[in-house]
Amino acid sequence: MGRVSKRKAVEKQFVVNSSVRRYRAGIYARLSSDQDIKKNESVEVQIEIARKFVEEFNQKNTGEVIDVVECYTDLGKTGSNFEREGFQRLLQEIRLGEINCVIVKDLSRFGRNYLEAGNYIEKIFPFLGVRFIAVADGFDTGKEGNENKQMASEIKNLVNDMYAKDFSKKAKIHLKQRREEGSYVGGPPPYGYISSWNDKRRVLIPDDNTAVIVKFIYERFVETESYAVVADLLNRRKINPPAIYKKTKEVYHSSDEKEYKGWDKSAVERILKSDTYSGTLVQGKTSITAKNERNRIHKSEEEWVVTKDAHESLISMELYRKAKEIQEKIAQKTASHKNHTKGYPIEENIFDSVLYCGVCGRKMTRTSYVKEYADGGKARLDGYFCLNGGQTKVTVCPESNRISKAELVDILRPLIRMEFAVFLDKPKKYVEFGNERISESVKRAEAKLHETEVKIRRFREEESSVYMDYRAGKILQKDYVAYKMQQEDKLIELRKVEEGQKKDIKTLEKLSGRYLSAIRALLKLKSGKELTKDMVEAFISKIYVYPGKRIEVLFTFTADCMEGVK
């Protein structure tokens, strides 16, 4: 939407000659959605016609002057309603008293809804003291004797209204045909693509600047299995979200710009749920009413127009399928937690961070339900299963690999007591030995951290130099993006190392307390208290579950930290 402001210049002119009546005009231009039929009415042409009218008007008239304050435009907007951004902005300026004259090329550019257009011209604008001029129609509410043209304007608006309704039907048929031909008929292209005309088809082609970002999103999602984590990775890189990129054409947030508006979980999810990036074009999911573009009707899946291999894919089919599988898993997991029975809430998952399938290595998924007994009693029962068993038909992982929470706890209790029994009578010596080892480990970890910080600093210096070259026009944006993505991958790895090293130092510093916590947890377990998440994580690293309810437990401290304690 274009905007041309001359407000300051106009304000200065107002005080020059108070005897002349001056109008503060807003030129309104609309490019309708049917411009593939009529290509001679661009907004530039409409504005030029209006400006020429103003110029001639000011030359011919001595008692009146029209000053063009701003131009308001709507691109690709229907004329059957007035819910348009540019027009609504014009209306707001009128209400504020900034505009008191509206100029359009002709009545059809103003609107094709007879009732609404007539309401603005004959009621709203006169009430607000606004002069309305339709240049090509010779219609001007500021002229005396313009009543003779009132009937003509009403007839023309009626014709426009009828045309709009007739065109709406024809447009729907035309759009359906274009969809079936594999032509992209949507609005702005999806993030990662630009549109181009190939013969009579509008096709999507990869955007060199953002295609790599889309691939990055899919790859990281398959790795992390989290929309939120991917959004965080994008935000760490200061990559502009689709809406900001569309506006600025800058992939990365510039330090010169205002506050960074990053990605959220929903933005990532929309990209991952789209079939477009696999080369498939899915169109016609919704339709709109003639009265209101916002009133969208969702169609059944059978009515969708699906075109395979409509354009170049940005990701491999293998990556696409993996992402879909993970999305289904997340949806199932979310659904299982939505409808818990009142009075029987889902309890904390005490094995959330430690429980894995012993066959395929995948983290086991919790299932929870409320069981009703014959006597009317109810109880919530928790269990765990491997999602690779049965759901995705991974043959190496049997569907029977599942275990209930009660069964798992019954197995773990004696196993933990047995593993730690030898250390329960010497907790003091255990803690002293641990602290000594921690002190040595901290020194080694701090030396490694320093080396990593030096590498990161050198990376940043090089990046700053390349960025200055990009801003100076020495490097194309697509080349800069490619460089950034490559460098950022390396930097992310270094950052991971750095974060890991810092985390290790903090962990080591807290390890004495953790040793003591483990002893306390064991004493609680020995006294018969229920197993809690804190207790599990105090002395268990991983639990592997195998078919037949067989488990393998990897304890955190016994293997290496307990060694040497006498």
TrEMBL record:
User: Can you tell me which residues the record assigns to a coiled coil?
Assistant: 435-462
Would I find Glycoprotein among this entry's keywords? no
* Keywords, ordered alphabetically: Coiled coil
Q: Which residues form the Resolvase/invertase-type recombinase catalytic domain?
A: 24-182
What sequence ranges are listed for the domain Recombinase?
A: 190-333
Q: Does the keyword Coiled coil apply?
A: yes
Pfam families, per database record: Recombinase, Resolvase
Query: What is an example of a GO molecular function annotated in this UniProt entry?
Result: DNA strand exchange activity
Instruction: Supply the PANTHER family for this chain.
Output: DNA RECOMBINASE-RELATED (PTHR30461:SF23), DNA-INVERTASE FROM LAMBDOID PROPHAGE (PTHR30461)
What is this protein's name?
DNA invertase
